[in-house]
C-alpha cells in the first residue's frame, strides 16, 4: 500500500481529478475522520473496548492528523466510535488538506461563491497515485484473492468508501453485487467502518425528514 496515511488515501480517492474538486465535503470529512480512526486500529495503537476506542500505545505515527486524534482518544476514553467519527470531522479534513498542500500532494485553490463564500478546490498533483488507489479498491472488491488475504489497508479503504457511499469508487451495483465480499473486508477494518455507516444513514434520514417537513409546510401554506 501507499506510504500515505489512510485518511490521506481516502481523501485522494474522493477527489474528482477531472474537475479539480472535492464533491460532498461533509461526507468526505466523515470519511477522513473514520479513516484516521481505522488507521490507528491497523497500526495496533487503538482497539475496540465495549463499543469505544481504547488507546493501547502512545507512540507517535509521524502523521499530525493521526497523532492529534490519538491524543484526543487518550484524553476522552468514554466516547463511542460513532461520536468520534462525527466529532471535529470538518477540522480534521481541513488539517489534512493543509498538510497535503504543504507536502505538494495537492494544491488548494480558493474561490468565492457569489463573491462572498470561500470554497476550497483541491488540484491533485500526483494523479498517478490517485488512479492507483482506485485500482487498489477495484482489486480488493472484485479480485479473486480471498478477502482474508487482501492487504489490510486496501480492505479498510474499500470498506470505508462503501460505508460513506462514495459512488465514484463503489457504485450501487458494486455494493449490491459484492455485498458478502464487502462484509468480509469490513471485518478486517475495525469498528470505525460500521460507525461511519450509521452516521451516514442518520444524516440521510435527517435530510429526508427536513425535506419532507419543508414540503408539508409549503403545501399547507
In short:
By secondary structure, the protein is mainly alpha-helical.
Topology of helices and strands:
Layout: H1 6-14, H2 25-42, E1 46-49, E2 52-55, H3 64-75, H4 81-86, H5 89-103, E3 106-113, E4 117-124, H6 127-142, H7 152-163, H8 172-177, H9 179-187, H10 192-220
Antiparallel strand pairs: 1-2, 3-4
Helix pairs in contact: 1-2, 1-7, 2-3, 2-5, 2-7, 2-10, 6-7, 7-9, 7-10
Distance between the termini: 57 Å
Query: Into which percent range does the helicity of residues fall?
Result: 55-70%
Strand order of the largest sheet: 1-2
Report the β-strand fraction as a percent range. Answer: 5-15%
Enumerate how many helices there are, as a single number: 10
Write a structural description.
A hairpin with a 3-residue loop joins strand 3 and strand 4. The mean pLDDT is 93. The longest helix is centred in the last third of the chain and has 29 residues. The chain contains 10 helices and 4 strands, in the order H-H-E-E-H-H-H-E-E-H-H-H-H-H. Helices cover 60% and strands 11% of the residues. The termini are far apart. The chain is mostly helical and 221 residues long. The strands form 2 sheets. Strands 1-2 form a two-stranded antiparallel sheet.
Observed structural traits:
221 residues; mainly alpha; two-stranded antiparallel sheet; 4 strands; 60% helix
Amino acid at each position: 500500500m501507499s506510504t500515505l496515511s489512510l485518511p490521506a488515501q481516502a481523501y485522494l480517492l474522493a477527489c474528482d481529478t477531472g474537475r479539480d474538486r472535492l464533491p460532498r465535503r461533509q461526507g468526505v470529512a466523515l470519511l477522513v475522520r473514520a479513516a484516521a480512526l481505522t488507521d490507528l486500529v491497523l497500526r495496533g495503537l487503538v482497539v475496540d473496548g465495549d463499543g469505544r476506542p481504547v488507546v493501547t500505545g502512545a507512540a507517535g505515527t509521524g502523521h499530525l492528523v493521526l497523532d492529534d486524534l490519538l491524543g484526543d482518544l487518550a484524553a476522552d476514553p468514554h466516547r463511542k466510535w460513532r461520536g468520534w467519527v462525527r466529532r471535529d470531522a470538518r477540522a480534521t479534513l481541513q488539517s489534512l488538506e493543509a498538510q497535503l498542500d504543504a507536502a505538494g500532494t495537492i494544491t488548494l485553490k480558493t474561490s468565492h461563491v457569489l463573491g462572498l463564500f470561500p470554497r476550497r478546490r483541491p488540484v491533485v498533483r500526483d494523479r498517478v497515485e490517485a488512479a492507483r488507489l482506485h485500482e487498489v479498491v477495484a482489486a480488493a472488491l472484485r479480485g479473486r484473492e480471498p478477502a482474508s488475504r487482501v492487504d489490510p489497508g486496501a480492505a479498510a479503504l474499500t470498506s470505508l468508501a462503501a460505508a460513506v457511499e462514495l459512488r465514484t469508487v463503489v457504485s450501487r451495483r458494486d455494493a449490491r453485487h459484492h455485498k458478502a465480499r464487502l462484509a468480509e473486508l469490513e471485518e478486517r477494518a475495525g469498528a470505525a467502518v460500521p460507525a461511519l455507516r450509521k452516521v451516514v444513514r442518520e444524516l440521510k434520514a435527517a435530510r429526508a425528514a427536513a425535506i419532507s417537513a419543508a414540503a408539508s409546510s409549503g403545501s399547507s401554506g
